[in-house]
Amino acid sequence: MINESILVLYKHRQLGWRFNLYLVEKSEEDNTLRILGPPGQEFISRKDFSADERNLLRLMEETSDKALMKKYSKEKVVVDFLKNLKEETLEKFIRPAIEIFAVLIIESAKKTGISLYLREDMKRTILFPEQQIHILPENTQCLFNFVRDEAGLRYFISLTNGSTEVSLKDKPDIIIANKPAIIVSDNMLHIVNDIESKRLIPFFTKDFITVPAAMEQKYMQDFVLKTFLQYRTKMQGIEVFHTNPEKQAVLSLEEDFNNRLHLSLVFVYGNNPINPGSKKTMIAWLEETNPFQINYYERDLKWEKVHVDYLQATGLKLEGDNRLYEARKENPLGLIEWINSHQQVLEHFVFQQNTDKIYYTKEFEVRSVVNDTIDWFDVNIEVLVGDYVIPFIRFRKHILTGVKEYVLPDHSIFVLPEEWFEKYQELFLHGEKEGDSIRLKKMHFSLVDKLFKEKEDENPEWKKRPLEASIPSNLVPILRPYQKEGFYWLLYLYHNNFGGCLADDMGLGKTLQTIALLNFIYANAGKKKLVHPGEQLSLFDDDSPSQLSASLIVVPTSLLHNWQNEIRRFAPNLKVYLYAGNM
Fold first, then answer.
1. How far, in Å, are 133, 215, 337, 352 from residue 364 at the CA level?
2. Where is 93: in which H helix or E strand?
3. What is the pLDDT of residue 540?
């Protein structure tokens, strides 16, 4: 006699088909098994009682009467639990739970290789070889067969496992679970993919089901077409055509229930829009011809994913199945800015608007020119919005008051970019309107610098700085580094018609820096322009002396002679007239 553990399928009088684990004694003479009872602790503790077997035992304990009572009843005694169990609780909660664990138990049994037997009579303790059930290693496939001929429309279901066809008719079939379908047929246990057992029951007694002639049209639309989309099918007398419709990715600008702007994404195959979150992978429709014709196509899920990923990579955030939002929630019109600046992205989509307001959703261009005069800058900025050229001064009120929507002549709305409100606010605060231009005093040259800092190909005259070689040669070895820097700064201000102030401490050489500047100015008086980095004087530049006005130096009386002596020492070529009045 050999002791081993086996898996037993039995029918509980109230809870339906379940599994249990038993220790049995096997007869070597006739291969019968005698049930000894559930494995005791001594057997479970044995080294040859595997982890998979322990897992089987745990799974079955999850659906024991006691475990189900604790989860689905307030009763304290199993007898009372079964006595007072309501049919609704059984069908809605307990049977689905048992069926879920049935799948897990079967999959675990496949791993262990444990034997499965059918025990129909719980009073009998002897199991015979013909009661053994073989668990098929692979799941069984379901095939719906539809036939339409002179006799009408009919269908039947066939099962296949590998290359073997499984017949359902006239077999003592056992339904262990409804979804997924788990049945026993010819002592073979089948897990049937993607179908409920209740759909198989009619074919336990029938070869096929015939559809009344008057119901054919409705049956084709309501049952055959839906079955074609859900299950494997075989058609006879019904034509099936695979189509390859044109596909487009469509983005619609819309508002949600909270009036937030978003882009709604759908994929259109032919004339059929598909939501990206749809579970359908195949679309089919019926042509009412004779014979009936089913047309279908499969979604290009890879193509769809590329488009969704492309949009998310540009900064849009996907919410729900197909709503795309601009990530910055604090900017309600940020999506319009995104659209304006991502025209190359939108080339891959069909774009449309479904909003009450019509927004301008194309590219725009900003052109700016700064004219440098003696006392001010004339800033000319214009914005090209479609066919319209708009002087930037017209956005002054919007930028100063924070209004982002500007109504164009065609009544569409141009949304001012978020960055404009920070970049140009000071320009409008300090600038004065002069026609379509903005006039800005020279003291605000840093604002003008902002307008040009992103234009690497432009280098306006007022931004250029003279070469270090501009220092008079006799002063090069004398001036200290910080004094040279002061000289460069003064020369820069002079060249751009700016005023300036040297505010160094006493004794740091302000006098010397000023003399160096005056020396340079009068020494180069005949040149039309100063030399800048990367530039050379033309052969045709006029180098003749010019009549420059005198420079006025105002100093305390006590410093008159010091200044006069310093000029004679460091710039002897300069003519000096001393005027000292009486106070």
1. 75, 61, 11, 18
2. none
3. 45
